[in-house]
């Protein structure tokens, strides 16, 4: 990465123990990371916990960033590893989280990324397809960055997206029928 990259400079400050720099990264990336984690975990509480685990891992490992990718790509990779560690061995997220009006109000992140039907459709996808859909459409990462985050070839990203889009179209069709 170029030394003028603002994210790389902020991450270098995190590596030097600057807590304000970690806050700055949080403010820049908490929304996209939360969206990714929410769609992977299936519920707000678990996604928030994984996001906190991610920030702790970033705090501890910022010095290992070697500028071979963009900071955003590296952050999504850290978040993905934290999610896999947390969700390993757990069943896929529920088709739709029930709403209990008295104590369950969707947060702004949830409202921004879709309703229950989307969560249900994403939950039906295999985890590998769900990851590429969320990283591509909700985190707005280019195919090359998704490939780096997931450690797979760009062609695999494209094929997983194709399969996922087909499944999501079927789910949308079922929803409208």
TrEMBL record:
<keyword id="KW-0805">Transcription regulation</keyword>
<dbReference type="Pfam" id="PF04542">
    <property type="entry name" value="Sigma70_r2"/>
</dbReference>
<dbReference type="InterPro" id="IPR013325">
    <property type="entry name" value="RNA_pol_sigma_r2"/>
</dbReference>
<dbReference type="InterPro" id="IPR007627">
    <property type="entry name" value="RNA_pol_sigma70_r2"/>
</dbReference>
<dbReference type="InterPro" id="IPR013324">
    <property type="entry name" value="RNA_pol_sigma_r3/r4-like"/>
</dbReference>
<dbReference type="GO" id="GO:0016987">
    <property type="term" value="F:sigma factor activity"/>
</dbReference>
<dbReference type="InterPro" id="IPR036388">
    <property type="entry name" value="WH-like_DNA-bd_sf"/>
</dbReference>
<dbReference type="InterPro" id="IPR000838">
    <property type="entry name" value="RNA_pol_sigma70_ECF_CS"/>
</dbReference>
<dbReference type="GO" id="GO:0006950">
    <property type="term" value="P:response to stress"/>
</dbReference>
<keyword id="KW-0731">Sigma factor</keyword>
<dbReference type="GO" id="GO:0006352">
    <property type="term" value="P:DNA-templated transcription initiation"/>
</dbReference>
<dbReference type="GO" id="GO:0003677">
    <property type="term" value="F:DNA binding"/>
</dbReference>
<dbReference type="InterPro" id="IPR039425">
    <property type="entry name" value="RNA_pol_sigma-70-like"/>
</dbReference>
<dbReference type="InterPro" id="IPR013249">
    <property type="entry name" value="RNA_pol_sigma70_r4_t2"/>
</dbReference>
<keyword id="KW-0238">DNA-binding</keyword>
<dbReference type="InterPro" id="IPR014284">
    <property type="entry name" value="RNA_pol_sigma-70_dom"/>
</dbReference>
<feature type="domain" description="RNA polymerase sigma factor 70 region 4 type 2">
    <location>
        <begin position="117"/>
        <end position="168"/>
    </location>
</feature>
<keyword id="KW-0804">Transcription</keyword>
<feature type="domain" description="RNA polymerase sigma-70 region 2">
    <location>
        <begin position="25"/>
        <end position="88"/>
    </location>
</feature>
<dbReference type="Pfam" id="PF08281">
    <property type="entry name" value="Sigma70_r4_2"/>
</dbReference>
<comment type="similarity">
    <text>Belongs to the sigma-70 factor family. ECF subfamily.</text>
</comment>
<protein>
    <recommendedName>
        <fullName>RNA polymerase sigma factor</fullName>
    </recommendedName>
</protein>
């Amino acid at each position: 990465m170029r030394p003028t990259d603002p994210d790389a400079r902020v991450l270098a400050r995190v590596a030097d123990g600057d807590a304000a720099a970690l806050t700055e990264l949080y403010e820049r990336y908490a929304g996209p990371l939360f969206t990714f984690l929410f769609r992977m975990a299936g519920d707000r509480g678990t996604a928030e916990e994984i996001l906190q685990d991610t920030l702790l891992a970033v705090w501890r490992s910022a010095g290992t960033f070697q500028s071979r990718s963009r900071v955003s790509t590296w952050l999504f990779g850290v978040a993905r590893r934290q999610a896999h560690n947390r969700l390993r061995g757990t069943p896929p997220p529920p088709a739709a989280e029930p709403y209990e009006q008295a104590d369950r109000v969707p947060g702004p992140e949830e409202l921004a990324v879709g309703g229950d039907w989307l969560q249900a459709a994403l939950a039906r996808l295999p985890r590998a397809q769900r990851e590429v859909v969320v990283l591509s459409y909700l985190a707005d990462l280019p195919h090359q960055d998704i490939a780096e985050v997931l450690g797979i070839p760009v062609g695999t990203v494209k094929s997983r997206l194709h399969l996922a889009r087909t499944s999501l179209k079927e789910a949308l069709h079922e929803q409208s029928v």
